[in-house]
C-alpha cells in the first residue's frame, strides 16, 4: 500500500525542503529586521515560523511567532493582516476565544475574507463546532475545489468520525496536489493517519504515517505518532529508536512522556522515571505559560502517571477551552 | 515585485518561485547569448534548488507580422533544461544542464561557472538584481493614485536569490536560418513525465502588477488568477481561461492607464485594451544579431513593432535595465510623457560585465532586532 502511495507524487527531498523552509525564514527575517516587509509579507513569515514549529515540534517557534505577531499588531494596528497573523498564533496556542476575536478585528479592518474565513473555520473545528466549520469549508470548496479545500473538508469529516467520507476526500485532495513541496502532502497524510488512530485502525494509520515520514523524515509529530502506533503493536524497540532523538531535539514534552510510558510497559523503571521527570518538568513549565495549549497533553501525562489530582484540573481546563467529545472523555477518565 | 511570490503555489514553495528572467547578448563574448533564471526570493544561506524540478528556458524563433503588429511564433523549440540532485548531509548540490544541441554539462552549485564546448553555466546564490518599489504599487492600487516617491523603496535590495546563468554560442544552438528574433520563456516544471508547469516567466510583473489586482475585473472579481496563468503554455494559451485572462488584463491595464488622469490607451468597442494581446503573448523577445548595448533595450522591439517601426536594439532585458520604469511609462502614459519614475535607478549593486554577471550574494545581512523569543529553550 505505501509503495503505491509514495510512487504517485513526486516531491522535493524532505531534507532539502526543510533546508529551504529554513532559508525562507532566514531570508524574510532580514527584511522583518528593518521592518521593511509590509504586514502581509510579515504575516507570511509568521506563518512559516508556525509551520516550522509544527513540523519540528518546537514550542520555541510558536512563542517566537507569537512575539512577532504581537509586535506586528502593535506597529500596524489598522492592518487586517496583522490581526490575522495574531489570530493564527493564538489558535496555535489554543487561545481560541482570543483567536476568534482577532479574526473579527481582521474582518473589520478589511482582511482578505477568504483567508479570514478559512482561519475561522480552523478554530471552529478545533473547538468542536464542526457544522459551522464545515459550512465555511464547503463554501470555499464550491468556489474552487483543490488540494487545500478538499483536505480541509476531509479533516472535519474525520473529526466527526465519518471515516468513509473523509477517506474519499483525503484521496481526492491528494489527487489534486499540484506542487512539489513534500510538506503539504506529509501533513495531509498525517491527518489521515490521525483519523485512523482515533478510529482504532492502527494498520491504516501506520501506512499513512510511514508515508508522511518517508516524504518528510524530520516531521516530528508524524514520527511521534508512528512510534505510538508501533508501541501499541508491540514494536517497542523501533518506537524507542524513533523517540529518543525527538525527545532530545524537540522542546515539546510529548516525546519524553511517550518514552516514559513505553519504558514503563517494558518494566524498565529507571529509564521510565528519568523520562517521566523530564516530561513533568517541561509540562509544568509549559502549563504555566500556555495552559490552554498544554492542558490536554499534560492531563493525559498525569493520568498515565496515575496522578488524578493533577490530571483533573487540567482536563477540566482543556474542556473549557474546547468542549469536544475527546475533551469530555478526558475529564471522565480523570474523575473515575 | 518582478515575479516574486506570483501566486499561492509560488508562495508555498520558494524553490519553484521564479523571481526574474534576463536575456541579453553577451557583453563579454560576441556571438553569445546570456540566459538568466532566478528563483527563491529572500533566499537564506541554506536555500537549494529542488531535486524534482526542471528549471528550463524554452526558446522559439519569432517574426514580426507587420500588418497585425504581433509576433508570429515558430514551431521549432530549443530548450535548455537544468535539474539538480538532493545532496546528502552537507554535500554541495550538483546540477546537470542539457542544451538544445544535446551537450550536457554537470556542475556544482556555487562554483563560478562550468564551461563546455558550446556553452557555460553557473548556478548558485546571487544578490537579487530586481529593483522596484513594491509597496508603492500596492499603495497606488489601494488609493487609485500614483503613489511612487523619489527616492523610492527598493523592496528586495540586498536580498539573495538562486540563479541559473547560461551563456551559449548562438551558432551552436540555433541554425543559421532561424532568428534573429527569438522568444524566450523561463519555466519551472515537475521533472520527468508527465510534466506539469509550476511557474512561467516572460516579462516582469505581468502577474503581480497586471494580473493580481482583482477589484477592477468586471467578470471575476474574486478569482486568484495567477496560478491558472502560470500553468498555461506561453506559446499556446488554452481556451479554458483565455476569457478570464482577457477580462483581467483589459480591466487592470485600463486602471493603470487612468492613474495620470488621462486616457492614453483608448479601449476598443468591446473593451479590449490595445496592449492586452501583446502582453498575453508573455515571452521575452531578443534579437541575437544585435550587440549588447547596455540598458534601455527592454520592450524596445515590442514598442517598435506597435509603432510600425523597425527595432534598433537587441531588446531582451539586461539586469541593470530599468524595466519597471519602462513599463510604468508604457502602462500609464503610453510613453507620451511626462516621464514617470519609481524613484530607484538601479540594482542595489549593479550587475557586472563579466560572467556570471549577477553579483555575489549578500553575506552579511543586518543583525536581527526581533522580539525576545520567550523563555522556551530548545533541547535539554
UniProtKB/TrEMBL annotation, chain A:
Signal peptide residue numbers? none
SUPFAM superfamilies in alphabetical order: TPR-like
Output the Gene3D superfamilies linked to this UniProt entry. Answer: Tetratricopeptide repeat domain
A GO MF annotation of the entry reads: identical protein binding
* Top-level division of the source organism's lineage: Bacteria
**The name this protein goes by in its record:** Tetratricopeptide repeat protein
* Phylogenetic placement of the source organism: Bacteria, Bacillati, Actinomycetota, Actinomycetes, Micrococcales
Automatic annotation (TrEMBL), chain B:
* Species per Swiss-Prot/TrEMBL record: Glaciihabitans tibetensis
* Domain of life (superkingdom): Bacteria
Q: Where is the composition biased (Pro residues)?
A: 358-369
- The protein's name in its UniProt record: Uncharacterized protein DUF4331
Q: Which residue intervals make up region (Disordered)? A: 355-380
Amino acid at each position: 500500500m505505501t509503495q503505491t502511495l509514495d510512487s504517485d507524487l513526486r516531491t522535493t527531498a524532505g531534507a532539502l525542503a526543510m533546508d529551504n523552509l529554513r532559508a525562507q525564514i532566514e531570508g524574510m527575517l532580514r527584511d522583518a529586521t528593518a521592518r521593511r516587509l509590509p504586514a502581509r509579507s510579515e504575516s507570511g513569515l509568521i506563518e512559516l515560523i508556525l509551520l516550522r514549529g509544527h513540523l519540528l515540534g518546537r514550542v520555541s517557534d510558536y512563542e517566537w511567532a507569537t512575539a512577532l505577531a504581537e509586535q506586528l499588531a502593535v506597529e500596524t494596528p489598522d492592518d487586517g493582516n496583522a490581526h490575522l497573523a495574531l489570530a493564527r498564533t493564538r489558535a496555535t496556542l489554543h487561545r481560541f476565544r482570543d483567536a476568534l476575536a482577532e479574526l473579527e478585528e481582521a474582518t473589520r479592518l478589511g482582511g482578505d475574507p477568504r483567508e479570514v474565513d478559512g482561519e475561522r473555520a480552523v478554530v471552529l473545528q478545533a473547538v468542536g463546532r464542526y457544522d459551522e466549520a464545515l459550512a465555511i469549508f464547503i463554501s470555499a470548496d464550491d468556489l474552487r475545489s483543490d488540494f487545500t479545500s478538499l483536505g480541509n473538508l476531509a479533516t472535519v469529516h474525520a473529526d466527526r468520525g465519518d471515516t468513509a467520507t473523509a477517506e474519499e476526500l483525503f484521496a481526492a485532495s491528494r489527487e489534486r496536489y499540484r506542487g512539489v513541496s513534500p510538506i503539504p502532502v506529509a501533513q495531509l497524510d498525517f491527518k489521515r493517519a490521525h483519523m485512523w488512530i482515533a478510529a482504532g485502525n492502527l494498520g491504516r494509520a501506520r501506512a499513512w504515517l510511514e508515508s508522511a515520514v518517508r516524504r518528510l523524515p524530520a516531521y516530528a509529530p508524524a514520527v511521534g505518532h508512528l512510534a505510538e502506533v508501533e508501541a501499541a503493536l508491540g514494536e517497542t524497540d523501533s518506537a524507542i529508536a524513533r523517540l529518543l532523538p525527538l525527545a532530545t531535539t524537540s522542546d515539546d514534552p510529548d516525546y519524553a512522556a511517550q518514552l516514559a510510558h513505553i519504558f514503563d510497559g517494558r518494566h524498565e523503571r529507571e529509564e521510565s522515571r528519568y523520562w517521566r521527570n523530564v516530561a513533568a518538568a517541561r509540562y509544568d513549565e509549559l502549563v504555566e505559560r500556555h495552559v490552554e495549549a498544554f492542558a490536554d497533553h499534560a492531563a493525559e501525562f498525569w493520568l498515565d502517571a496515575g496522578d488524578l489530582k493533577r490530571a483533573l484540573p487540567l482536563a477540566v481546563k482543556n474542556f473549557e477551552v474546547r468542549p469536544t467529545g475527546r475533551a469530555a472523555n478526558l475529564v471522565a477518565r480523570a474523575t473515575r | 515585485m518582478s515575479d516574486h511570490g506570483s501566486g499561492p503555489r509560488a508562495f508555498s514553495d520558494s524553490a519553484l518561485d521564479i523571481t526574474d528572467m534576463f536575456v541579453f547578448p553577451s557583453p563579454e563574448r560576441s556571438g553569445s547569448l546570456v540566459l538568466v533564471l532566478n528563483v527563491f526570493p529572500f533566499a537564506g544561506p541554506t536555500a537549494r534548488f529542488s531535486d524534482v524540478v526542471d528549471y528550463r528556458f524554452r526558446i522559439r524563433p519569432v517574426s514580426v507580422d507587420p500588418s497585425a503588429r504581433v509576433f508570429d511564433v515558430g514551431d521549432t523549440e530549443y530548450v535548455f533544461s537544468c535539474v539538480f540532485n538532493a545532496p546528502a548531509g552537507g554535500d554541495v548540490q550538483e546540477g546537470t544542464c542539457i542544451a538544445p544541441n544535446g551537450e550536457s554539462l554537470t556542475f556544482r552549485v556555487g562554483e563560478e561557472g562550468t564551461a563546455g564546448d558550446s556553452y557555460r553555466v553557473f548556478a548558485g546564490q546571487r544578490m537579487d538584481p530586481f529593483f522596484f518599489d513594491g509597496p508603492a504599487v500596492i499603495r497606488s492600487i489601494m488609493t487609485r493614485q500614483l503613489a511612487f516617491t523619489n527616492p523610492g523603496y527598493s523592496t528586495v535590495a540586498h536580498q539573495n536569490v538562486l540563479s541559473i546563468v547560461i551563456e551559449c554560442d548562438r551558432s551552436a544552438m540555433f541554425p543559421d536560418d532561424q532568428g534573429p528574433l527569438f522568444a524566450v520563456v523561463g519555466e519551472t516544471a515537475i521533472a520527468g513525465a508527465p510534466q506539469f508547469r509550476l511557474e512561467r516567466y516572460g516579462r516582469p510583473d505581468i502577474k503581480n502588477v497586471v494580473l493580481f489586482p482583482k477589484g477592477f475585473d468586471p467578470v471575476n472579481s474574486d478569482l486568484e488568477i495567477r496560478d491558472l496563468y502560470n500553468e498555461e503554455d506561453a506559446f499556446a494559451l488554452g481556451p479554458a481561461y483565455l476569457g478570464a485572462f482577457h477580462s483581467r488584463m483589459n480591466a487592470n491595464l485600463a486602471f493603470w492607464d487612468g492613474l495620470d488622469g488621462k486616457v492614453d490607451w483608448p479601449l476598443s468597442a468591446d473593451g479590449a485594451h490595445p496592449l492586452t494581446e501583446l502582453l498575453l503573448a508573455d515571452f521575452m523577445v531578443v534579437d541575437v544579431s544585435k550587440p549588447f548595448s547596455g540598458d534601455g533595450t527592454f520592450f524596445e522591439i515590442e514598442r517598435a513593432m506597435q509603432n510600425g517601426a523597425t527595432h534598433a536594439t537587441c531588446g531582451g532585458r539586461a539586469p541593470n535595465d530599468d524595466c519597471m520604469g519602462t513599463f510604468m511609462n508604457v502602462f500609464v502614459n503610453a510613453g507620451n510623457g511626462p516621464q514617470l519614475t519609481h524613484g530607484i535607478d538601479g540594482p542595489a549593486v549593479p550587475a557586472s560585465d563579466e560572467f556570471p554577471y549577477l553579483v555575489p550574494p549578500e553575506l552579511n545581512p543586518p543583525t536581527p532586532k526581533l522580539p525576545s523569543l520567550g523563555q522556551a529553550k530548545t533541547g535539554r
